[in-house]
Amino acid sequence: MILVGLLLVLGLSGLALAAFMNNDGLYTAPAGTVELFGYSVEATVGQVFLTGAVAGAFVLIGLSMMFGGAGRRARRRMAARRELAEQRAEMRDLQRKHDTMESELAAKRARETGAADAQAVMDAKAAAKAREAERAREDADAGAATR
After folding, report:
1. Model pTM above 0.90
2. Angstrom distance (rounded) from CA 138 to CA 70
3. Which of 33, 55, 103, 119 has the most other CB atoms within 10 Å of its CB?
4. Which residue in 103, 125, 104, 107 sits closest to 115, CA to CA?
5. pLDDT tens digits, one per residue of 13-54
6. Contact (CB, 8 A) for 121 and 105
């Protein structure tokens, strides 16, 4: 695609140069006086044409720089969002593993200490279930926020 664009630009530049060179009378005819910042210049049609072509080239260069920078910034922003979502998912997984180990440890301690701590085991299981429900809500919220 870049090659096609380059060929198009070069072809049109050559065509404009050929038109400029072959129409000697048209491009050397005076176009009038151009005043800018207090200076006056007698310009021909050819000079006005070339000035417009150079100005157009600078505009295209500026636009390509502007859109290129915006594209890079958008890619960086998307990568940062993706990384943040991965970190959050990893954190949720680690928290789940922690809660599982915690409840297993509480159950093991309860078995070792006997039935007297059965209520503590029940409380630990209820707290683990409440934390798991909270994390499920957070997962749903995080999934909705990344979309």
Report:
1. no
2. 32
3. 103
4. 107
5. 887 777 767 766 666 677 778 777 888 888 887 788 888 888
6. no
Is residue 121's pLDDT more than 80?
no
Q: What is the residue whose two structure tokens read 């503590």? A: 120
Contact 29, 44 (CB under 8 A): yes
52-72 pLDDT per residue, tens: 888 888 888 888 888 888 888
Instruction: Count CB-CB contacts under 10 A for residue 110.
Output: 19
Residues facing residue 36 across a β-bridge: 39
The Cα–Cα gap between 35 and 42 comes to 9
Amino acid at 147: R
Retrieve residue 2's tokens.
């870049």
CB-based contact 118:110 (threshold 8 Å): yes
